[in-house]
Specification:
about 675 residues; alpha+beta; Gyrase A, domain 2; Ribosomal Protein S8, Chain: A, domain 1; 4-stranded antiparallel sheet; about 55% helix; disordered C terminus
């Protein structure tokens, strides 16, 4: 689907060529800045008046007349001449409606080459340190750019380039060995690592010998010392666990999370090329790159020979090569703070000097530092670091305080659920407020009142029903009565749910068939239970047996196996194993088919096979008494309708709705889906 302004441009080019019998290229069509100026504007008549030999207003009238006589025109409602000759273009409502519908089903035809593979490098926190508020900007900007590239049509991936290497790990190892608080490390590992690093800096001022020890520990780590290697790996693991928690809260997903350490093996090759091409100069034990005067770039150090250490620039050059050779990207976009502008200018220029595979399209998208009102940087030593987790936790605690005041009997889990739901509800109401306000031309406060009135009207019957139920209960007894009702209802619901969703009844052709299932000395049933991992209950229920298991997949395989055995009539150890293996082998095909079916039902374009398979697995899962496959389709359809109402992207909302519970099938055995 073409962008609307491109469609208008094509129409204007055609009409102008018909009127003046001359082809005019590069007709500019721009979005209007104000509502009264229409939807789009063009200055064609104004800038081509002398060439055509007519007044701009006369040219405008000729274009208008041509459009009025064009019965095929289903886009432009009218054109108005404004000022000295600007043409204000108004779209037909039918065109706007069709465009909104097509957003969810068709891709736009952007006038750019989208065949290139783009990688966005963003967030990039340091191991051993908690993420601070400054990381928020890189993370949000980077993820937004990634989504924009995806929407346009680029093949795009996101890389979280972790700071997991450097001499500071020598200091951290010394701190760990000397001053570790094991209880605090297990409870809050990243916070304890920060404390150890600060402790080292303080102690090193009093005892400079510690710097020598730290350097020795760092050299041991670089050499592959087993103990130091294990410590370093634990630092990385614990830190990234905290990072993942933040990314999950922010709905941020990366395709790659590759640390600096990964590129250590590539760096020697990079240095070799630099030396072979005589790009570096050895000065006082440092390999430096000097640039041309017109480049206006400061010299860049790529290696310190005495310490046999590399700098960030060397790592970034090796990264460029890896991303081209292995990831096959065509463009790298780095999202980093403004103060790194010089660094990236150095790296990009050196890459040009090195040629392929280092030299390809590269961009640095920078942002400024965050400051207090008095101009002091937020991460300054005077004010201390403002950590993201502290801000998130503060928001949660404030929400819980409000919940406590209104609902003092709620558990912590219930409070957290309410916090999340309230957050979602607030966002939805705000969106509806702004949309209603925009459409109706009323104030947001008035829009809010209308929304609340609508909600009240829609749920009036339900409210009346509850009022009738509790109107005889005294106010002071309401809480007590409610608790009794809930305590009585829950066991009933739980019993029904457990019974329904942890077992499956299988019909038998006859009562004699139960004996065949059991087999001589119980061999058949024993093998069946061993292979499938379920419990086969043969009780007094006539013409049926019950398959019992908490594992949905095992229960499904067992049921399918038993159904095929019953259909065939042959039940012996050899044939039981044969049918079970067949069903197990066909399971992945079944799941793929269920995944494809979901996409077909929802009219969603085909996704990656692993995603389709995950969607198919919904069929085997139940959550809170609902089949996850059916539930996810319902959520997808509802999300699409909400998005249409709010003027958002219905296709994206539909996909999000379909995949909102994907963690429940990706989680390992005994693992919470919230950790995936």
């Amino acid at each position: 689907m073409k962008l609307v302004h491109m469609e208008i441009r094509d129409i204007l080019e055609q009409k102008i060529e018909e009127i003046f019998e001359e082809k005019f290229e590069n007709i500019e069509v721009q979005y209007s800045t104000k509502k009264e100026f229409g939807d789009f504007q063009t200055n064609f008549a104004l800038i081509n008046s002398e060439i055509i030999g007519k007044k701009p207003t006369e040219i405008g009238k000729m274009i208008i007349k041509s459009l009025e006589n064009d019965k095929k025109n289903d886009i432009i409602e009218k054109i108005e001449i404004a000022g000295p000759g600007f043409l204000n273009i108004f779209l037909k409502n039918s065109k706007i409606q069709k465009s909104i519908i097509k957003i969810g089903t068709e891709k736009y035809d952007f006038p750019i080459d989208t065949s290139k593979k783009v990688l966005v490098d963003y967030s990039s926190p340091n191991i051993g340190k908690r993420m601070h508020i400054g990381h928020l900007r890189s993370t949000i900007i980077g993820d937004s750019l990634k989504r924009i590239f995806e929407y346009i049509g680029f093949k795009v991936s996101g890389d979280n380039h972790l700071g997991d290497w450097g001499s500071r790990f020598g200091k951290l190892i010394v701190g760990y060995k000397k001053w570790l608080n094991i209880e605090e490390y297990e409870k809050n590992p990243t916070g304890e690592m920060e404390r150890l690093y600060v402790k080292f800096s303080e102690e090193a001022q009093l005892n400079p010998e510690l710097e020598v020890v730290a350097k020795e520990e760092w050299m041991k780590l670089k050499a592959g010392d087993e103990n130091n290697r294990k410590l370093w790996q634990s630092f990385v693991e614990y830190s990234f666990r905290e990072f993942k928690d933040f990314y999950k809260k922010m709905d941020i997903q990366f395709d790659y999370c590759i640390g600096e350490s990964f590129y250590n093996e590539i760096i020697p090759e990079t240095l070799k090329i630099l030396e072979e091409k005589k790009i570096t100069t050895d000065i006082d034990g440092e390999l430096k790159v000097f640039f041309e005067k017109e480049d206006k770039i400061e010299p860049c150090i790529v290696k310190k020979k005495a310490e046999n250490s590399y700098l960030y620039s060397t790592t970034d050059l090796a990264t460029l090569k890896y991303r081209k050779d292995i990831l096959n990207i065509d463009r790298a976009v780095y999202v980093a703070v403004e103060k790194q502008k010089e660094h990236f200018r150095q790296v990009f220029r050196i890459a040009e000097m090195m040629g392929k595979p280092y030299d390809y399209e590269k961009n640095h998208v920078w942002f400024g530092v965050m400051r207090f009102e008095d101009g002091v940087v937020l991460s300054s030593k005077r004010r201390g670091m403002i950590r993201l987790i502290d801000i998130v936790n503060q928001a949660v605690e404030e929400a819980k305080i409000i919940i406590d005041i209104k609902n003092p009997t709620f558990s912590e889990e219930e409070k957290m659920k309410i916090v999340e739901k309230q957050r979602e509800a607030d966002q939805l109401i705000d969106q509806q407020k702004m949309k209603l306000s925009e459409i109706a031309g009323i104030k947001p406060e008035e829009a809010k009142q209308q929304i609340m009135e609508r909600i009240e009207a829609e749920h009036q019957e339900e409210l009346i029903r509850y009022i009738e139920k509790f109107k005889t209960i005294k106010a002071e007894e309401a809480s007590k009565e409610a608790a009794i009702i809930i305590s009585q209802a829950l066991p009933k619901v739980a019993a029904d749910t457990v019974s329904e969703f942890t077992s499956k009844m299988i019909d038998l052709p006859s009562e004699e068939f139960k004996g065949k299932l059991i087999g001589r000395e119980g061999r058949n049933i024993s093998l069946f239970e061993k292979l499938t991992g379920v419990e086969l209950l043969i009780d007094d229920t006539p013409l049926s047996v019950r398959i019992s298991s908490f594992d949905c997949e095992k229960r499904f395989v067992a049921a399918k196996t038993l159904e095929l055995l019953i259909k065939d009539g042959r039940i012996n150890p050899f044939y039981i194993e044969k049918v079970f293996n067949q069903v197990t082998a066909d399971l992945q095909t079944t799941l793929m088919e269920k995944g494809k079916e979901a996409l077909t039902v929802l009219n969603i374009p085909m996704m990656k096979p692993e995603v389709v398979r995950a969607i198919g697995q919904f069929f085997l899962r139940y959550s809170y008494g609902q089949n996850l496959w059916i539930h996810s389709l319902e959520v997808a359809k509802t999300s699409e309708m909400i998005a249409i109402e709010l003027g958002l992207d219905p296709a994206l909302a539909k996909k999000a709705g379909l995949l909102h519970d994907v963690g429940k099938v990706l989680a390992g055995a005994g693992e919470s889906h919230t950790k995936v």
